[in-house]
Input
Amino acid sequence: MSGVKITGLRENIAAMKKAGVEVADLKEAFAPISDKAAAQARALAPRRSGRLAGNVRASRRQNAAVITVGGARVYYARYVHFGSVHNPRPVPFMFQAVDALARSGWIEDAVERGLTVALRRAGL
Output
């Protein structure tokens, strides 16, 4: 599994919530990260019909940025991404998208900017 883990983030967010930071502001802090990662994954997704790329979704949470792909109509997303017996060459486009953003340092900067805005809105 690919991703970026920021040590102490959950504890800091819990402390921010106790200090009066709104959950909506925290979700808004992570929105640009999930949106950019989803856009990057869409661009890297292999295309036949475009359905796979069109099914990449960004999710807003109060302590994470999450992107997902797949569902009933795009059940094959995991087989494209991870490979299978019938598809021996995986195309890990989701991992590649997150890794590219992580290597650039953009994710850490975006978390810092977003949390700073949330703290300022709470008057802290």
